[in-house]
Structure formats: structure tokens, C-alpha cells
Design brief:
Distance between the termini: 21 Å
Number of strands: 8
Shape: globular
Mean pLDDT: 95
Number of helices: 5
CATH topology: Chemotaxis protein chec
Low-confidence stretches: none
Largest sheet: 6 strands, antiparallel
CATH architecture: 3-Layer(aba) Sandwich
CATH class: Alpha Beta
Strand content: 25-35%
Strand order of the largest sheet: 1-7-8-4-3-5
Number of domains: 1
Helix content: 25-40%
Radius of gyration: 16 Å
Order of helices and strands: EEHEEHHEEHEEH
């Protein structure tokens, strides 16, 4: 299970360095990852075994979800973590999420979200101003 936030800087080639605390778990997956678009404007990064589970669920959706299949499956890119723990984020995917240099990597359980740092800060601040969703009404903190 991946959790926590990490501030990252992509290098000039568009590579991100995976935080050390996540490298061992990703190395167990042979460093094989899949990156695709997320409907909220960030990128999702899956270890390959988790991607395959997600991909099966998406592929099984009915025809009325065809555009979402295209968004998730059509934009998916398989990548490998290099020996120093870096992952190349394709230019098309970086552009779709508005990621240029400063980014935030969020552990979201079985996958990661990669956000442009400024966009994430703005959206998080906006969410914090609003009411919590109804699903939290009976949740105790």
C-alpha cells in the first residue's frame, strides 16, 4: 500500500526520481510501471500487476463508457524504473497533466497520483474550503 506525499522535481528529460521509501516495493514488481491519465487532471502510476487488475476492470465496462476506456487505456504507457530509481514520464502525459518541473507524488493505496505541484496545491486548498462529502458524516476522526 502506497501512502504519503512527496515533492519532486522532474529533470530536463522529464524523469522523476521515485522516493526511496517506495523503491523496494516497486523493485519487487520488477520496476515495471504503467502511467495513464486521471480524470481529475493528474496522472496515475501503477505497478504493472496493479495496472493489469485496473485494466481488466476498465476493459469490461459497457460501450457507453467507450470514451473513458480510450482515456485510461488509450493513453497508458508502460515504463521501467531505471537502476537509480528514475522513471521517464512521456511528454504527452506530462502535457496532459500540466507537469513541467515541480510535482507532487501521492501514494493512493495500490497506485500513485502525480500532480503538477501548483495545480495540486490549488485544488487541495479549494477542497479544504468546501464541505466534506456526505460519506464522511458518520466518520470519526
Amino acid at each position: 500500500m502506497f501512502q504519503g506525499a512527496s515533492s519532486l522535481n522532474l529533470d530536463a528529460k522529464g524523469r522523476m526520481s521515485v522516493p526511496t521509501r517506495h523503491r523496494d516495493a516497486l523493485t519487487e514488481a520488477a520496476g515495471q510501471l504503467t502511467i495513464t491519465k486521471h480524470p481529475h487532471g493528474c496522472l496515475m502510476i501503477f505497478p504493472r500487476n496493479e495496472w493489469e487488475k485496473f485494466r481488466e476492470r476498465i476493459a469490461a465496462l459497457p460501450m457507453q463508457a467507450q470514451w473513458w476506456k480510450r482515456i485510461f487505456l488509450g493513453n497508458a504507457q508502460d515504463v521501467e524504473m531505471d537502476a537509480t530509481g528514475r522513471v521517464l514520464i512521456a511528454p504527452e502525459l506530462r502535457a496532459s497533466a500540466g507537469i513541467t518541473k515541480e510535482a507532487v507524488l501521492l501514494g493512493m493505496g495500490a497506485h500513485f497520483e502525480l500532480w503538477d505541484a501548483e495545480v495540486y496545491a490549488e485544488q487541495e486548498a479549494e477542497a479544504m474550503k468546501g464541505e466534506m462529502p456526505d460519506v464522511f458524516k458518520d466518520f470519526s476522526f
